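Preliminary data (for renewal application), NAP complex.
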Amino acid sequence: MKGKIVLVTGASGGLGTYVTRAFLDAGATVIGTSRKIQQSDFTGAGFNANPGEISSRAGAQTIVDSVVSRFGRLDVLAHTVGGFAGGQSVTDIDDATFQRMLDLNLNSVFHILRATIPTLRKSGNGRIIAIGSRAAVEPGPGVGAYSASKAAMVSLIKTVAAENRDAGVTANVILPGTMDTPANRMAMPGADFAGWVQPAHVARLVVWLASDAGKEISVAAIPVFGDV
Ligand SMILES: NC(=O)c1ccc[n+]([C@@H]2O[C@H](COP(=O)([O-])OP(=O)(O)OC[C@H]3O[C@@H](n4cnc5c(N)ncnc54)[C@H](OP(=O)(O)O)[C@@H]3O)[C@@H](O)[C@H]2O)c1
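Predicted structure:
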């Protein structure tokens, strides 16, 4: 990944931390963004913190404009921003929860795609890797808002893959099961952590999809199972 300019959204998150580290270890220049990210969050000359908000078109565009003005181009978008809400049946989900899931999981990717695609097309070898969830394709009871928002995200990524193939851009979405993050351990202290998906493994897949070896893979929605 040497010489590649990589934007990681949600770079301070449970998964985003691993994705950022994996790209840095692979030699990329990484711009890590989240609302509260700081330069001190990662060591290494290749890391550049770019605090920002991607819940609006303008916020996403500001982040991408600053990447392009500083580095001249963008080769890879690794989009990890997202969030979970569950526990209510569809008849009981309140409007605010439904809207929050759409904002976090669908609208954020829409905004960052619109902002990054013009510059990713210029790369000639642009890569888009987004993080969905197994729930996008295997919805279960009590996760209707989350599953629907992630399913719509999968659809958007596949559309973008088809629309930008002519410029050498690939777009894929990874669908992890429950991951072994500090937040999940705190939320589910009685769970069997051993069966959860390791964020480091997902991060490795993200970097592989962005690498030269992954250039023929596009329009894929790739589930990642834990040790189950
Ligand atoms: N954890 C799991 O078990 C699991 C399972 C399947 C799929 N996933 C998916 O995997 C992805 C990563 O999950 P995670 O557990 O790592 O999430 P997380 O720890 O909550 O991280 C979310 C990241 O997004 C940033 N963020 C949130 N809202 C933002 C906004 N409006 N603008 C900019 N940045 C924002 C947060 O940082 P700031 O607060 O600093 O903005 C943080 O860096 C998500 O898409 C999630 O749905 C997670």
